[in-house]
Design brief:
Blueprint: H1 3-20, H2 32-56, H3 60-71
Helix pairs in contact: 1-3, 2-3
């Protein structure tokens, strides 16, 4: 595999991992448990796919694609925190 293509495939895998772990913070303390459950599921998806990639040696692009499919439609079942600039005090 060409060096540029191999580098691009690793960058794509890293981008998919970042996307998978980008879980919105909860808006309230009551939503902390739901947030942690969702985060744990996402971490588990990443861990299992990286372990499979290392064990079977399939290409990073394949695993990036599988990871994106697994996290698509992963709804936060809590109210996500929304940063509003007007709430910030100086």
């Amino acid at each position: 595999m060409n060096e540029r293509i191999e580098e691009a495939s690793h960058v794509d895998l890293l981008a998919a991992i970042v996307l998978a772990l980008d879980v919105p913070l909860p808006a309230t303390a009551a939503d902390q448990a739901a947030y942690h459950r969702l985060l744990e599921r996402c971490i588990g998806q990443v861990q299992s796919l990286v372990a499979l990639m290392l064990a079977y040696g399939a290409g990073p692009w394949h695993f990036a694609s599988v990871l994106r499919q697994r996290i698509t439609g992963r709804p936060a079942n809590y109210t996500p925190f929304e940063y509003r600039r007007d709430e910030v005090t100086s």
